[in-house]
Design goal:
heterodimer; A: 530 residues; alpha/beta; Rossmann fold; 3 domains; B: 361 residues; 14 helices; transmembrane helix (chain B); transmembrane transporter activity (chain B)
Amino acid sequence: MRVGEQDKSSKAALSGSPFGREEGESLLEARGLTKRFGDILANDQVNLRINKGEIHALLGENGAGKSTLVKMFYGSLDPDGGEILWRGKPVRISSPGEARALGIGMVFQHFSLFEALTVVENIALALPNPGNMKLLAQRISDVSADYGLPLNPQDVVADLPVGIRQRIEIVRCLLQEPDLIIMDEPTSVLTPQEADRLFLTLQRLASEGCAVLYISHRLEEVKRICHHATILRHGKVVSECDPSVETPSSLARMMVGSEVMVVSQGALSLKRGDVRLRLKNLSSPALTPFATALANIGLEVHAGEVVAIAGVAGNGQSELFDVISGEVPVNPDMLEIDGQAAGKRDINWRRKQNAAFVPEERLGHGAVPGMKLTGNIVLTRHATRDGLISKGFLSRTRSSTLEKKVKTNYDVRMSHDDPEARSLSGGNLQKFVVGRELDRNPGILVVNQPTWGVDAGASALIRQALIDLARSGSAVLVISQDLDEIFEIADRIAVISRGQLSAPENAQTMTREKVGLLMAGGAEAKAEAL
Amino acid sequence: MRIELIKRKEHSQLMAMLSPILAVGLTLVAAAILFVLSGTDPLLGLFKFFIEPLLDVWSLQEVVVKATPLVLIACGLSVCYLSNNWNIGAEGQFVAGALCGSALPILYPEFETAATLPLMLLFGVIGGALWALIPAILKTRFNTNEILTSLMLVYVANLLLDYLVRGPWRDPDGYNFPESRMFSDAATLPGIGDGRMSIAAPITLAVVVILALVLSRTIKGFEIRVMGESPRAGAFAGFSRKGLTLFSFALAGGLAGLAGTMEVSGSLNQLLPTISPGYGFTAIIVAFLGRLNPIAILVAGFVLALSYIGGEAVQASMGVSDKIANVIQGLLLFFVLGCDTFINYRLRVVTSRSSGEKAGA
């Protein structure tokens, strides 16, 4: 009930804010803020103004300088030039502690929680003066319930889903009664329903006068809840707008600076062929206390189609990927590749059957960080018929040829020839890691998070390549947390939740609401009913 | 003012080259200070320690004799360290190899054929490898810490040697001295020249060349480097982590065992209660000073061998304790590891906010 009222009042605030913005009371202001890393100007004369009680969106592609700017506000980076004004007075924020003392809180994209500890213990660790644990637990219950994000202080973090873990971070932030909360991609780990709940909380906060600096790639939600938006491109502010009167595509245009290529389903229409990858009653125990066990997973991926698995992070996606790639063996019959039992076969046997895999983590899993790209070519292609190895010896000319081919065909940009993998930007490394496998023209391709942290241009390129590969007769399985991506490329959609997979459904008949319910546990109910 | 370490985007080739040279330079400075503290002329001390041994044919040969086991052991250790297996027990593998290699001439002194020496070397390799496989199997089966287990096995091996030379393997004609019988000619490595040099040196050289080729040009070398830097990516490439742990320990143990057998057969000609002046431990320094690269390890082996000879020299001529050799070896490792930081990081001195801007720009 109370939440509903808050919602109404914040709607009122929303409709009032776009007008008379200059008159609004300024809370945080950046004037000519500049930050340089080596030769790169990460922030170039950035001006930004956040008013009290405003949900302010910070938009930009990866590498546009959003994180750098936010880190300067939160005291983890020193600006090289310009100034920050807090309530109209110049301040120097030299540490996150000082930022918190001023009243700036931050909820990070990657949580820093101790999984083996309880909610209240985790929060106590982050507070300067936690005081009595019982009182703190009480405060946590009260504050979290009050803001519509209920938490049980005694729960152990390891048992909690990602959405709840995020609540811990938010409540931890709220306990310090901030005037400005910075949120970095808060909805990337939430189901649509969980995100709706978060929006209510944000609107409630705004109505109480707390400002929110909201970083997101999801333009629909920015349009929905944000009062004002500042758009960064290549470290500069390129425009400001009221997102409620824009469209997602106009916002995207401002971010990218040009029209974003539209992914097409291809000239060839979907022609479903034989089953190339089959999972049958696939179960696998959790290998570590914090891993997810896979239970009775069944899925068939046919030649010619793209099947996508949606789900909130940490519900068994990476465990499923490891089983399909062969890094974790299962019973032979649980997994078939082109009709052959393959559950116990190693990853290179599967590669020789023309399967290819792209893991979620680019650095450290898909590529060796300190190794040059020519070496990273060898990483996944030494066992296949690429001529990289003869009599145990590596062919440097061959790996260099392949590296150049991937580089040109998939537009991998690098500062000099054959750099170490870790020096590439996330998007460019992803193009390399995906391109390395696509270059083989695999019959089966399994990709986990194909465009995680990749800018719009590169994402479109990768997604188009996945569709084109499927239409040429390959079976493509995409595991993704990005619903926009899934609806853009998938022919059929299944949802993974706590290690169980829902029955795949045609993308045309699937709705976001259905996916959301399945993500929140409906998949398990269905699997159990079967 | 504060000093910051900034991570480099890629590792610096220049610093990778300069770091060992810088470390040797810093060690020289520290050694000079040590000589001053012990009341001697630092320049004379440095000269006697580092230069004089190189001016004399006899001591040059001694440097080669000492460098041989160091280089051989360090080559094996480099494979362990490259693949992230922390084998600290080469000293024990050296002794275990020497014991196995010596079993033949001690237990069957009459067995004198052309096959005697090759068999001894083979037994030495197998003995060292088996000894090294103990911590490797413990690590792969039970997840024990190989640093502790391999180190503790050094003391076990040393005590076993001590027991054998005082007990069952004592020379029956040796007037109760704790020594084994002298090896027959068939069990002695052929010498080179008139000093103590033997064919151990060329054998070591061959190992260095082969290992350098394997590491830089073959898929096995690739596997070793990948697993060392990123085991997860290694698994993705289809390499077995456990398999490589066993392989690298067996290789390092085998080479240490070979070094032990060649030392006993080529230099000592019998088993004594102590057969190594800490070669297995010093080789760790050699491996790191040599950037875990076989060719550079060859150079580093000579530098460390020199420190043994130099230590004896300053004790004989200046009355400085030869323990100074150990101190200088330790300093060298310390400086090498310290300087290696700059391969992946660069230094930035921040004096104030404004100068921070300049440094950033």
